[in-house]
Amino acid sequence: MGVSNTGGSADTAATVQLLVDDDANREALQTILERRYVVTTDASELSGDLVLVDDRSFASSRDVIETPDDEDRLEFTPVVLLRRAGTRLDESLLTTGPSGERPLIDEVVDAPVQPTILFRRLDNLITRRRQFELLQNQNEQLEAFADVVSHDLRNPLQIATGRLELLESSVPTDEQVHVEEIQTSLERMEKIVESMLTLAQRGNDTGALTPVSVGDVADDAWAVIDAPDATFVNSAAETTILADEDQLQTIFENLFRNAVEHGTAGESAGSETEGTLTGAIEIAVSGIEDGFVVEDDGAGIPPEKRERVLERGYSGGDGGTGLGLDIVLTVVEAHGWDITLEESDAGGTQFLVTGVTRVE
Predict the structure, then answer these.
(1) Where exactly are the structural domains of the chain?
(2) CA 79 to chain centre
(3) C-alpha to C-alpha distance for 61 and 69, rounded to whole angstroms
(4) pTM of the predicted model, to two decimals?
(5) What is the mean pLDDT of the chain?
(6) Which residues form the Histidine kinase domain (predicted)?
(7) Architecture of the 10-113 domain
(8) What angle do CA 91, 205, 121 make, to 5 degrees?
(9) pLDDT tens string 188-213
(10) Contact criterion met (CB below 8 Å) for 51 and 15
(11) CATH classification of 205-360 is 3.30.565.10, yes or no?
């Protein structure tokens, strides 16, 4: 075993599982790796933060590498293959499966080993594993919080709504405004509960990726948006992509709601209509070469705020939760796509989702 010598303590050093059958090669690699990592040579089961195997030992180690992780283990353990010059490699080992399965080998490093290059490649993969672990922990905390929200808040909300309906008929007409304000607050709380549950249920996973029509899914999403004064223009009828259909609809629903709720405020600070939500906005969906676009002709977002809008948990301070775009980000990332925010041609907001697989 070795201890990290890069400024971290032994208990925080990454563990590299070295699967090399040849004694001399294993000892030489272990000497190099121990400058930076904890090294284990146990070949009975996956036990490291990263697996390093050479091409001679890959066949004998494959069963261990392919063994499904236990429920208590992370689902992402990077595998690096050390390849001798001239060794042919089955390219299928490096490609993603048809349903999004991870490749069996994440990186290939050619021999002879150059320590600086090797360390950089391994560090990058270990960082990805750490990020995956952090995301997994966040999802678990979110699910636990969503359970609390669902069980401990929904029942009181339903009771409060029912009692308010009973009281409404006995409240004088000139006092009905208070009933309306209470009802609005209760409905807002219910929306928050629904958003939290949706975000927790989606997590960072997708279902089966199948060919879906962007135009059809956008139409279905618009059908559930309550915006009678808004106009919807759908130009994506010819755009078909690989996606989880339900999650794609979730993206559209949240982007549409974001446009209606935030894009229809006053045209500029200090204007007479500042802060009013008229719903009089045009929202358009269209396909592009590697994805799709959702844009509007609303008030837009100042350039200095655009990057922050796509940060997790960001809220513009208008009473929103910031969860709508959080859900969009979660679903986009689960698909391996990218999302950017720009100004639309009409001066409003334009969301571009790219990195999408088109189906002809």
Answers:
(1) 10-113, 205-360
(2) 23
(3) 15
(4) 0.52
(5) 81
(6) 148-354
(7) 3-Layer(aba) Sandwich (3.40)
(8) 45
(9) 778 767 766 766 665 556 667 899 99
(10) no
(11) yes
